Amino acid sequence: MRDSPGAALASLVDAQVDPQLTGTWTTKSRKVLTGPGFYDPVNEKMFEPPLTGFSYSFTDDGFYEVAYYRAGSNPAQPACPKGIIQWQHGKYHKASNGSLILNPFAVDGRQLMSDPCAYGNAVYTRYHQQEIFKHYEVFPNPYDKAQRLNLFGWDGAPLNPMYLVYKPPQMLPTQILNPTSAAATGSQPSSTSKSKRDLPGDDDGLVQEALNRKALLKQKHLTDANRLWWLGIGMTALGGIGYVWF
């Protein structure tokens, strides 16, 4: 008996997602989490976590969300460390070769980048980047039996492991949150390059559009947030030193 077109389509959709991924995953610090505590799309605000890390969330119907917070040293100018916060969401699917393809809603992604020696204030931009993971693993962590997710980049390089913290996932709404006229008609800019999660200067394939003139954040708010940002990065660095020596 031949399946109906609707049944065949449902089977195809089911094959493109993996229920093992459903939930919110985060790195060891467990301080970076997707959802409203990381990004407020109504007021265009991004909230700095107390420690660096990243988080991915997946739904059982093919949506995802990702939050990144990174701080990096600057060997040429030790007094000028860089920091970056990134948020995206969109749709994902599992390819026939086992890889994961994450396609963001291009108009919604946001990035906040701080480089005190290059800019007086943090730079707030629109951001989107397709991500391709060559393969992944989901299994109980051998030490504490917590569910663990290992992602491997497009080149096979492993990311830091993540652990399941919420199921169902903690996420913002999965529809487009900041539509533009292009998004309303269904056309979105696309990024086809392979993903690189590096600090500014290695922006291969990244699409960034300055939002400073349009954002609801005022210049005064950016200045105040910048001060808090560097206090947070300083505390993170001191914590790392304490970990090494004590």
Could you give the topology of this structure?
Layout: H1 5-15, E1 23-26, E2 39-40, E3 45-46, E4 53-58, E5 63-72, E6 82-94, E7 100-104, E8 110-114, E9 123-128, E10 131-140, E11 147-153, E12 162-166, H2 181-184, E13 207-210, H3 219-245
Antiparallel strand pairs: 1-4, 1-12, 2-3, 4-5, 5-6, 6-7, 6-8, 7-10, 8-9, 9-13, 10-11, 11-12
The termini sit apart by 69 Å
| Tally of DSSP helical segments | 3
Number-wise, the strands total 13
Beta content: 25-35%
Largest sheet: 8 strands, antiparallel, barrel
What's the order of the H and E elements? HEEEEEEEEEEEEHEH
- Extract low-pLDDT stretches: 1-15, 183-231, 237-246
- Rough shape? globular
Strand order of the largest sheet: 1-4-5-6-7-10-11-12
Task: From the alpha carbons, calculate the radius of gyration and give it in angstroms.
Answer: 19 Å
Q: Classify the secondary structure makeup into a structural class.
A: alpha+beta
Q: Helical proportion? A: 10-25%
> What is the residue-mean pLDDT, rounded to a whole number?
76
